[in-house]
């Protein structure tokens, strides 16, 4: 899948686009990802939000099964497409987050977005952190370009 990746991106501009925070607008956190289908192996592109928590990047979703998550579980290499302001196709690897303390920290930040008036998530009822902790997919995004990775701790 790396043949569709653009390796000539402006690293500084990409870093700035990835540096979203709780007050960042919808457009700043909206990206596309291209995964390989779990069964077909064909590229599948979807729109999704990414999250930046404690210097790392994540994908998550409502606490129900997600096709993109199944695809990444089968084929962890994918393309992260920045598309708002900065345009770049970034090869990455999906790393499942299993550590309960990391899941709690990241999913707490994700669920808190429903309280931000500028980001109001369209839900019919308030989402509960407990449901997300039990049932939501959570993967860390590790960019292939080492210049985009967080410093080693």
Tell me what you see in this structure.
This protein is α+β, with helices and mostly antiparallel strands and 153 residues long. It contains 5 helices and 7 strands; from the N terminus they run ααββββαββααβ. It has a 7-stranded antiparallel β-sheet, with helices on both faces. Strand 3 (51-53) and strand 4 (56-60) form a beta hairpin. The chain is globular. It comes from Micromonospora trifolii.
State the separation between the terminal residues, measured CA to CA: 30 Å
Which geometry do the CA atoms define?
globular
Uncertain ranges: none
**Beta content:** 25-35%
Biggest β-sheet: strands ordered side by side in the sheet:
2-1-5-6-7-4-3
Structural class: alpha+beta
Q: Helix proportion of residues, in percent?
A: 25-40%
Please provide the ordered H/E string of secondary-structure elements.
HHEEEEHEEHHE
Main sheet summary: 7 strands, antiparallel
Radius of gyration from the CA trace? 15 Å
Would you count the extended β strands for me?
A: 7
Mean pLDDT: 87
Helical segment tally?
5
Features of the shown structure:
single chain; 153 residues; alpha+beta; 7 strands; globular
In short:
With about 150 residues, this protein is an alpha+beta fold. Helix content is about 25%, strand content about 30%.
């Amino acid at each position: 899948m790396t043949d569709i990746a653009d390796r000539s991106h402006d690293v500084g501009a990409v870093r700035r686009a990835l540096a979203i925070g709780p007050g960042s607008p919808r457009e700043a956190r909206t990206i596309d990802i291209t995964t390989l289908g779990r069964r077909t192996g064909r590229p599948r592109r979807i729109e999704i939000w990414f999250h930046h928590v404690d210097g790392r990047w994540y994908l998550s979703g409502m606490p129900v099964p997600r096709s993109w998550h199944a695809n990444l579980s089968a084929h962890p290499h994918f393309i992260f497409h920045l598309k708002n302001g900065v345009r770049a196709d970034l090869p990455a690897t999906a790393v499942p987050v299993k550590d309960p303390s990391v899941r709690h920290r990241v999913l707490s930040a994700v669920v808190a977005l429903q309280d931000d008036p500028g980001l109001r998530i369209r839900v019919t009822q308030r989402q509960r952190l407990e449901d997300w902790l039990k049932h939501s997919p959570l993967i860390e995004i590790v960019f292939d370009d080492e210049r985009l990775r967080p410093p080693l701790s």
